[in-house]
Design goal:
The protein has one domain: Beta Barrel (Porin). It contains 1 helix and 13 strands, in the order αβββββββββββββ. An 8-stranded antiparallel beta barrel has the order 1-3-4-7-8-9-10-13. The longest helix is centred in the first third of the chain and has 13 residues. The two termini are 27 Å apart.
């Protein structure tokens, strides 16, 4: 993220500004779309993998707000910065696995829920079609919140049946992609965007099992369609 912003500032300082385009200045918008992500975890006791694990496939919907600022450089090149905050509708409950197979004897479950996400990104692209269409690449820093609820359904770990523990973590990582934006009138634009993201691993504490869970989000693909108002 730091390197991306540095390159953006260098481009702004080294290039002559053009007269501008419809894309110049601040804007706000709404978008909706599709995302695909896996929540996965492995159970460790005293630093050793116990053989228990879980995997939940999440998605598919998202809804968010975004805003940013653009500036046209010479030769129809445009640079910008954009931030977004999103609500993701993704949850799934599955049986814990033992050595890769569903543990139907223990009957323990994990419910994974993905709700909040955010990013801040640089944009770089080219304006064409009489200054009404903008094709770009984008990359930056991303966050996504994951909540995992661990339930000892049958009480096989020495707990009362139905005992649960919940952990929430903000996963930190990167996001990068490409998109196209087009003005439908002097103030309103529509856009489509594809992105791929990746996040660092986190840890959930599960004292009811006497263990910890090494949890990760797999890199995922997302698509967004949005509309923006340019000031």
């Amino acid at each position: 993220m730091k390197n991306t912003l540095t390159l953006l500032l260098l481009a702004l300082s080294a290039s002559a500004f053009a007269e501008g385009s419809n894309f110049d200045g601040a804007y706000l918008g709404l978008h909706g779309g599709y995302d695909h992500v896996y929540s996965q975890g492995a159970d460790y006791v005293d630093g050793n993998h116990s053989g228990y694990s879980f995997s939940n496939e999440l998605g598919p919907g998202l809804l968010g707000v975004f805003g940013g600022f653009n500036k046209t450089l010479s030769s129809n090149v445009l640079v910008g910065i954009e931030a977004e905050y999103e609500f993701h509708k993704g949850d799934r409950t599955s049986l814990v696995k033992f050595n890769g197979h569903p543990d139907t004897i223990g009957g323990n479950t994990v419910k994974s829920e993905s709700r909040d996400a955010a990013s801040i990104r640089a944009k770089l692209g080219y304006i064409f079609n009489e200054n009404r269409t903008f094709a770009y690449v984008t990359a930056g820093y991303a966050l996504e919140k994951l909540k995992n609820t661990y339930t000892d359904v049958l009480g096989t770990a020495g707990n009362d049946p139905g005992t649960s523990e919940t952990n929430s973590n903000w996963f930190k990582g990167w996001t990068a992609g490409l998109g196209v934006e087009h003005f439908v009138n002097d103030k309103i634009s529509i856009k489509g965007e594809y992105r791929r993201s990746g996040f660092s691993d986190e840890t959930d504490n599960t004292p009811m099992y006497g263990s910890i869970q090494h949890v990760k989000f797999d890199s995922y693909n997302s698509l967004r369609l949005g509309v923006a108002y340019h000031f």
